[in-house]
Amino acid sequence: MSSAMLHSLLDEVESAKGPDWLKQVRVEARTRLLERGLPAARNEAWKYTPLRALESRGLRRVAADSQSVGVDPALYTLAGVDSPRLVFVDGALRRDLSDLPGVHGLAIESLGAALEGNAESLSASLGRSFDADAQVFARLNSALPGDGVVIRVAPGVKVEPLLHLVMLGNAGAADGYWQLRNVIELGEGSALRLIEHYAGGQGCTHLGNVVNQYSLKAGARLDLLQLQAAPDSMRLIRRSDAVLDADAHLEMRCVEAGAQWMRHDLAVALQGDRARLVSRGVFVLNGRQHADTRIDVSHRARDTACDLVWRGVADQRARGVFHGAITVCPGADGTDALLSNKNLLLSDQAEIDTQPVLEIHADEVKAAHGATVGQLDEKALFYLRSRGIDEAEARSLLTLAFCRIAFDSITNETLRSQLDAMLLERLPRAVLGGNAPQVAG
Amino acid sequence: MLKIDNLHVRVAGKEILKALSLEAKAGEVHAIMGPNGAGKSTLGNVLAGREGYEVTQGSVEYDGINLLELEPEERAAAGVFLAFQYPVEIPGVNNTYFLRSALNAQRKRRGEAELDSVQFLKRVREKLAVLHLKDELLHRAVNEGFSGGEKKRNEIFQMALLEPKLAVLDETDSGLDIDALKMVADGVNAMRDPSRAFIVITHYQRLLDYIVPDFVHVLADGRIVESGDKTLALKLEEHGYAWVAQRTVAGVG
Q: Residues 398..437 of A with a Cβ closer than 8 Å to B: which?
């Protein structure tokens, strides 16, 4: 299927600079894109998120001269989170908005700068081919030259400060496109805490396409919060690929509190023995928002574990999609896998589609999964009202409580309250005055 | 304070309360006893305003107003409190936050000043001590992970904090050991007051050893079939509910 959208973007590929192997990667990706186009509606991975509307649109790369444009600090700051901060606007690094004090054992550079240095060290990450047609946006990301960040933590280093990575779409040209490619590598036994913060200026209609590649060497631990708070006019596609070696631990929280249309593909390979993924997530949708989360965890070694708890809330005419697949590969004995997905529909016209998939090819596996779509618990609602809390507030309170499982283990209270506030804003009739409700526990 | 007249209530198409009448004045404690399925909990739920309870006939007057017209939260602000037979667990909602929201929502509706956190906590600590509840419960989610006894004591604690004018206790004694039962009774007795009325719904006489009622009513098949003073509870304990049923039939004949 030919696509106006792809053609409009792919013209610049052949003239782009870079090492030969990278040029080769781009050309190959471009060729496949032009051959295969966007996946059709019958492609299982895009069944609930049709691309028809996108296909016919001509998109334009947002010009790099946006470097000088003013950006509201409210867009790239978070209460309770200080430096180091790294800010990308419209796909380009803004050094003037970033604040990167030197931290021992932590190397941060833009992808552009990294490619001018030891480019070879990035060939495995950037050279990755996205073979499935469903991975079309990652393919597009590979085909086009662009920036991003390369974060490397030296073996054994436990980075103390919380790193804040901001990816903004700034208001501007309609149908703008920008992309980022982030490579995050944790050396053996190292540890990093990272917030990926997706946001945008009010009314921004960009399509952002972000590919994150995480590599956790043996015993490394990454605590990751992906906070997606893009304006309701923006479209955002992101892919998060993680590979975990033995005893590595990825603790990941995703809060989807924005974007008009968004898709997140989270693929985690538990490659080494005893590697462990804990993933919590929530989306809160209203209006005509569309959010699609697709998780693919593969257990490829012994005694690996995943623990996935996701929640979804949809109001008005919003549509949420959740697909959670866990594959236990042959030989991955001792796997412990848990997937729970609960959803709340706040309106008759909202829709949430959830699909847990468990595929087991090993023995001695502990696996459980469950998914539900329902309404607020009437008993709890009556209980709160019988104590004097009015109905609208009781509903907000219960809905927020339902969502909190995604982030209630965050110890930074200020940040947690801000997440509360962000979600509350999206809930219907959010009439809670004064302080945001406290998190239990 | 409370005047229930000829109340008929249907639940899921089935008539549960049939011509129930009851009057409670300020300062009185009324015990309502009766066999399973008599409609005891239905009475509590109707008074608190739970959905799904259809009043087909009769009236409930509270402090001179038609209680049945009020939303549950309006009833709470007007001073009606139901201690639930099965308190609900609400994960993710902090107990302290819940209590303060409830108290301040009621006060706001009544046109009273809201309490700040210092005033609120002072009041909380006083009441906690009476119920022998641990501070730690305040930091947990509402009823989550509470033992059966803790849940019931938490109900009475909420009552003490909210200071209602009419308190309906729905089988608050069920599932309590003797120590917890005494704590609950202490909590209730501490609140007995000339301006406050209690309706204590119970299956067993035991609770009434500790909360001594002014009146005892027997509820059977949806209506009050016998009323008396506290000695009625003792007779029931001795003879069982069948005794009341027989007497009623005899009376009709």
A: 398, 400-405, 408, 437
**Domains in chain B: ranges and CATH:** 2-252 (3.40.50.300)
Hey, is the C-beta of B158 within 8 angstroms of any chain A C-beta?
yes
On whether the CB atoms of residues B176 and B150 are closer than 8 A, the answer is no
User: What chain B residue is nearest to A382 in terms of C-alpha separation?
Assistant: B50
Q: In total, how many domains does chain A have?
A: 2
Query: Reduced to 3 DSSP states, what percent helix, strand and coil does chain B have, rounded to the nearest 5?
Result: 45, 30, 30
Q: Are residues A71 and A203 in the same domain?
A: yes
Q: Which residues of A277-290 are buried (b: 16+ CB within 10 A; e: fewer)?
A: bbbbbbbbbbeebb
**Six-digit token string for A90:** 């419209």
ipTM above 0.85, yes or no: yes
- Confirm or reject contact between B76 and chain A (CB < 8 A): yes
Q: Which residue has the tokens 């848990």?
A: A338
Give SS3 for A299: strand
CA distances for A202 relative to A91, A164, A170, A258, A284, angstroms:
17, 21, 8, 11, 18
| Residue type at position A89 | V
The last residue of one of the domains, among A272, A299, A332, is A272
Task: Report the C-alpha gap between A151 and A186 in whole angstroms.
Answer: 8
Structural domain ending residue among the three candidates A238, A272, A306: A272
d(CA B97, CA A172): 42
Per the CB < 8 A criterion, the answer to whether A231 and A203 are in contact is yes
Q: Are residues A265 and A387 in the same domain?
A: no
Q: Does B85 touch chain A (CB under 8 A)?
A: no
pLDDT tens-digit series, residues A299-327: 999 999 999 999 999 999 999 999 999 99
- With beta carbons less than 8 A apart as the criterion, state whether A100 and A84 touch: yes
Q: Which residue of B has its CA nearest to A389?
A: B102
The CA distance from B66 to A65, in Å, is 69
Note whether B37 contacts A: Cβ–Cβ < 8 A: no
Residue of A nearest to B89 (CA): A380
Rounded Cα gap, residues B231 and A71, in angstroms? 79
CB A378 within 8 A of CB A347: no
C-alpha–C-alpha distance, residues B92 and A405, integer Å: 7
Phi-psi group of B153: left, alpha or beta (phi > 0 → left; psi -120 to 50 → alpha; rest → beta): alpha
pLDDT tens digits, one per residue of B89-121: 999 898 999 999 999 999 999 999 999 989 999
Sequence-ordered list of residues with C-beta below 8 angstroms from that of A392, at least 6 positions apart, any chain: A428, A429, A431
Residue A213: inside a domain, yes or no?
yes
Tell me the backbone φ, ψ of residue B169, rounded to 5 degrees: -105, 110
Range of the domain at A403: 378-441
Distance from CA of A430 to the nearest CA of B (A): 14
Most A CBs within 10 Å: which of B53, B67, B90, as the mutation test of the A interface? B90
| Contact predicate A429/A399, CB 8 Å | no
- What is the pTM (predicted TM-score) of this model? 0.87
A296/B contact by beta carbon, under 8 A: no
Q: Is the CB of B61 inside 8 Å of chain A's CB atoms? A: no
Chain-chain contact of B76 with A387 (C-beta, under 8 angstroms): yes
